[in-house]
Design brief:
Order of helices and strands: HHEEEHEEEEHHEHEEHE
Structural class: alpha+beta
Largest sheet: 7 strands, antiparallel
Number of helices: 7
Helix content: 25-40%
Strand content: 15-25%
CATH class of the largest domain: Mainly Beta
Number of strands: 11
CATH topology of the largest domain: Lipocalin
Shape: globular
Length: 319
């Protein structure tokens, strides 16, 4: 009995240490002012600023995809979020999460699906259920993140915080990441960490036009779907060199559109679309490869970020 108790204590201690290390290594924005937050968003995530629908002290939320109303059903959006504060990670054990949201536009109501969290940025790592799906409709409180999510789904004129002159921070985060994961205990908050703000409403955000306008560079031959496919054959032979991920979306066509939008910036490098199953959903990652080393890949991403585009350097998958 004593040995079993000791084993449990050691295991719990290791989990706490692991959580503390992950929290220490995670990067959080120095402030929620527009400039520092935008710089952090482009450096640490593959979220496009124009897809962000709400910023709270706890998280930043964006739209992944929108499914229009049809067949007697209202519109549905898939939204994802990234933790903005250490206490959010300490409470949930997740740095990122995603959830689908059904909207009743005439009734000003929403219903959330299952909220799935991940211990790493950009929906990476082992998935955890943060919150079970709603069984009933709920009315979002005005001015909360959940209210912005409903507006993004139902109001064609909705604009996110980075699409307006003055970025507004919403104080109520909503129910998306308020619960600790059921599958494992959340790590203890770091010493001296502030108590997380109380959520007064429910879930978080979405956006009216989730498919960003794709600027087409003048006098530049665009990358076609055929060329992306052809280059993927070369990419498949790669064995783990650095790559630049410029977006993660829910359709192959959207991912190829992100690559086409790069135009001459690709500079003859290989491009391809990676298909990934995350949390029971299919994602398509737009990837650029063929870099000499990490410094080369970082320079490429720095140029994209300077132009207001998302870019994330990571290790390539073995082919």
């Amino acid at each position: 009995m004593m040995r079993a108790s000791a084993g449990v204590a050691v295991a719990m201690g290791l989990m706490a240490v692991s959580g503390a290390v992950a929290q220490e290594q995670a990067s959080f924005p120095p402030s929620l002012d527009r400039g520092p937050l935008l710089s952090w968003l482009q450096r640490e995530t593959d979220i496009l600023p124009e897809r962000v629908v709400a910023v709270t002290p706890q998280s930043i939320t964006s739209v992944v995809s929108t499914f229009p109303a049809g067949g007697g059903q209202g519109p549905r959006v898939v939204i994802r979020a990234e933790a903005l504060a250490p206490e959010t990670y300490a409470r949930t054990g997740s740095l990122s999460w995603h959830v689908s949201l059904n909207a009743d536009c005439p009734g000003h109501r929403v219903r959330l699906g299952e909220t799935t969290g991940y211990p790493q940025r950009n929906l990476l790592g082992e998935r955890r259920i943060l919150r079970e799906a709603d069984t009933e409709w709920r009315v979002p409180e005005a001015g909360t993140a959940l209210d912005f999510a409903w507006r993004a789904a139902c109001d064609a004129g909705f604009q996110g915080p980075f699409q307006t002159r003055s970025m507004k921070v919403v104080q109520a985060d909503g129910a998306m990441a308020t619960a600790a994961p059921a599958s494992a205990p959340a790590p203890a908050p770091a010493a001296g960490a502030a108590e997380p703000p109380k959520a007064s409403a429910r879930p978080a955000p979405a956006k009216a036009d989730p498919k960003p306008a794709v600027p087409k560079p003048a006098a530049t031959p665009p990358v076609t779907a055929q060329s992306v496919t052809a280059q993927s054959a070369t990419a498949a032979k790669r064995t783990g060199g650095p790559v630049a991920q410029i977006g993660s979306v829910t359709s192959d066509a959207d991912a190829r559109g992100l690559l086409r939008a790069l135009g001459s910036r690709i500079g003859g490098r290989a491009t391809w679309v990676e298909k990934a199953e995350v949390g029971g959903r299919t994602w398509f990652r737009a990837v650029v490869g063929g870099f000499g080393d990490s410094a080369d890949a970082n320079r490429f991403c720095a140029e994209l970020k300077a132009a207001g585009r998302a870019c994330l350097v990571r290790a390539g998958k073995s082919g």
